[in-house]
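Onboarding guide, step 5: your first structure request.
Type a short instruction followed by the sequence, for example:

Predict the 3D structure of this protein.
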Amino acid sequence: MEIGKLPHFLLKEIVMDNIKHNRKEVILRPEIGEDCSALDLNNHLCVLSSDPITGAANEIGRLAVHISCNDVAACGAEPIGLLVTLLAPPDATEKDLRTIMSQVSSTANELNVDILGGHTEITASVTRFVIITTAVGKTIKSKLVTSSGAKAGDAVILTKTAGVEGTAIIAHDKEEELIPKLGRELVDRAKSFINKISVIPEGMIASKLGANAMHDVTEGGVLGAVWEVAEASKKGVVIYEDKIPIAEETEKICRLYSIDPLRLISSGCMIITSSEGDLMVRELEANGIMATIIGTVTESPERLLFNGNKATAITPPGSDEIYKIT
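The system replies with structure tokens like these:
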């Protein structure tokens, strides 16, 4: 099987179709395109999301905190705590463990998130560090936003630029290979993208402004996230390729490795759909968050990417582009 997320048809058949739902407190359940669950606890919602870090070798502690907190923020919930499971290979050193846990702790402190517990283990079952985080957040019912809420006519908004996380990962992991080809200055700028990974600010702003749907852009990139929102919402979408912002650093790194920036892992970006797209963009930009309208949600089931007058189908996310780099 291909490295990366389980294909959607297998995810549905093997995982989703085997999950039974018994508790009335669970008001948001696992679905294709939904990254969180929500529990109704006396009209306050507990929102949860869990994710691993598998595609990076460096800065994994920092990334692990952000990716789960981002999913919770994409529901309009404030992250309050994390459970952390760290699996280390037998050749790991104490220095490695200290570095990763320092990254986890400092990043959690920056986000005002507590470490609630977890598990740490040395195991021959892995050949590199694997870190899994589960974020716990809170919100009220009226502020809950899901991936499945997009409505026909909504503007599709992208925050920041495509491929933020992938750019940072590649720059950190391939620094020595990249510097002779692209120059130290550009590589250092690309590495600094690690500081753009959080989407908590845009999640809180968009929730308050009444976003219909939000989705953190992870494996599968911008186009994968767009497809997942459309799939979860049972809607179509029209996206304009020339509207999708791509940073110079991302463009040059992707060209060097012949990978598609629109299918590159992109934590740090958020897909937001809103019936008041221009207002949403103005408010995000007023808070220092780059935001761009890249398309429209449609009632038609077609999911299309336009490049000039040429339209191609937006397909479900497959193996992320980052796995093409060895």
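Each response can be followed by summary notes, for example: The chain has two domains: 8-143, 147-324.
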